């Protein structure tokens, strides 16, 4: 029998016009779980917490204006359902960050990992260090497309977030039950900071990096520089209430140091110890596993699928984000019209098929959006959706899931994204206007990338 629909019409500034919607919290439910009941008498949403009530509301929104009589009991599988957004390579204004938070919260994602600093830009003001933003937040030009082409636009680019901006972002996210996890990458990926304050480096006296790739210019490990890092982390802790604080730790060349990789391990332990005095834990890329990550560190496992297993064996909690599975800057098809096609092929079905390791140490997973080739929110949305919809199903729903079922439901969900004004990639492929011929790419084969990853992760074996 087809149930009779309840006429529920969304109106701006209100919940539902003409229908009674009641909400309550029942601690007996899973913390983020909810029960949604729709009857001819009204709609009831019961959550295990305010977050659970919020997710029930998102399901109600997704059901559309004509809600059928239904009963839904739902709860997420993973606690960390995230996306990393790189605002260092291309700065995104505050309103665009807030809009992006709204869209990921609509998909019941609950972590926004903000990559705030890198060689190509420093995006956070720090009291007492004004040149971080007057100098470090600006570059003279931007590389167009893959670095193998060595093309530049010759246009200045930059921007930064004030403390007030960041508090606004944090509060906006919290009201949607999204935790903002900040990342200030150190001791590598620091050319922008060193350009602002050369005493932090090892003799480099140049500008913010304009090209992509990894800068050889890293922090020195003097006590003055360590104190700088502590002061930066103190300010980050003052602004962001997240239990974990990202310190990066990835891709750090050691050529400028009078020693090897063990020096970075010591640096990481010192920063972890300082964060512990603030009641926080280190969140770092899987390179910090080499020579032993600090106790309590959370590992973002990105160099393929192997580092997650290494972290689990070492007893660390893990957020899974393997590049060949969840890097949304990677190309979506072999169509030459894809904008700046880089990396290996990563389709919606590929993302949907990813399954994190079965371990209680796995907090969840996140997709990573590196923005070297995304100069606008519109471009970010094109690369993120609908692949991020697939990840939302992976981290929320059961391990036993069916792609044909998801594919059958996806067109109706894309209509919801249309209503939200999201510039998702059409299932039919890129539109002519999506191409970026001025920013050519460099596609990779999966076999080549897997061989490269095997070599890159030799430090973990």
UniProtKB/TrEMBL annotation:
Residues 78-397 form the Glycoside hydrolase family 20 catalytic domain. It catalyses: Hydrolysis of terminal non-reducing N-acetyl-D-hexosamine residues in N-acetyl-beta-D-hexosaminides. SUPFAM superfamilies: (Trans)glycosidases, beta-N-acetylhexosaminidase-like domain. Keywords: Glycosidase, Hydrolase. This is beta-N-acetylhexosaminidase. It is an enzyme of class 3 (hydrolase). Residues 16-75 form the Beta-hexosaminidase bacterial type N-terminal domain. It comes from the Bacteria. Belongs to the glycosyl hydrolase 20 family. Residues 427-446 are annotated as: Disordered. Its EC number is 3.2.1.52.
């Amino acid at each position: 029998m087809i149930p009779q629909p309840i006429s529920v019409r969304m109106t701006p500034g209100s919940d539902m016009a003409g229908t009674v919607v009641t909400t309550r919290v029942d601690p007996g439910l899973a913390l983020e779980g909810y029960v949604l009941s729709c009857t001819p008498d009204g709609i009831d949403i019961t959550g295990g917490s305010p977050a659970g009530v919020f997710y029930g509301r998102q399901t109600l929104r997704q059901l559309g204006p004509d809600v059928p009589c239904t009963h839904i009991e739902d709860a997420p599988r993973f606690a960390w359902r995230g996306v990393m957004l790189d605002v260092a390579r291309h700065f995104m204004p505050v309103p665009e960050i807030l809009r992006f938070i709204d869209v990921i919260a609509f998909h019941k994602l609950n972590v926004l990992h903000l990559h705030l600093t890198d060689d190509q830009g420093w995006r956070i003001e720090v009291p007492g260090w004004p040149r971080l933003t007057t100098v470090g937040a600006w570059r003279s030009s931007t590389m167009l497309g893959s670095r193998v082409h060595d093309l530049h636009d010759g246009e200045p680019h930059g921007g930064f977030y004030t403390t007030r901006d960041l508090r606004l972002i944090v509060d906006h996210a919290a009201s949607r039950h999204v935790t903002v996890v900040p990342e200030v990458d150190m001791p590598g990926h620091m050319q922008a900071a060193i350009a602002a304050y050369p005493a932090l480096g090892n003799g480099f006296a140049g500008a913010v990096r304009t090209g992509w790739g990894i800068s050889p210019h890293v922090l020195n490990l003097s006590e003055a520089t360590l104190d700088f890092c502590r002061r930066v982390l103190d300010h980050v802790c003052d602004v962001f209430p997240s239990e974990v604080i990202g310190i990066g730790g990835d891709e750090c060349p050691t050529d400028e140091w009078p020693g090897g990789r063990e020096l970075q391990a010591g640096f990481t332990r010192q920063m972890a110890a300082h964060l512990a005095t603030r009641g926080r834990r280190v969140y770092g890329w899987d390179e910090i596993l080499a020579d032993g990550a600090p106790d309590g560190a959370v590992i973002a496992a990105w160099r393929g699928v192997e580092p997650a297993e290494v972290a689990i064996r070492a007893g660390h909690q893990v957020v899974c984000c393997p590049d060949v599975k969840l890097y949304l800057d990677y190309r979506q098809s072999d169509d030459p019209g894809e904008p700046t096609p880089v990396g290996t092929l990563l389709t919606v079905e590929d993302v949907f098929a990813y399954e994190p390791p079965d371990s209680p140490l796995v907090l969840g997973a996140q997709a990573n959006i590196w923005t070297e080739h995304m100069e606008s929110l519109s471009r970010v949305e094109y690369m993120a959706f609908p692949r991020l919809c697939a990840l939302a199903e992976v981290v929320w729903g059961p391990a036993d899931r069916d792609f044909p079922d998801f594919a059958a439901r996806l067109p109706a969900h894309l209509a919801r994204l249309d209503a939200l004004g999201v510039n998702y990639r059409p299932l039919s492929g890129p539109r002519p206007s999506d191409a970026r011929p001025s920013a050519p790419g460099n596609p990779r084969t999966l076999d080549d990338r897997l061989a490269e990853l095997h070599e890159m992760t030799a430090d973990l074996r």
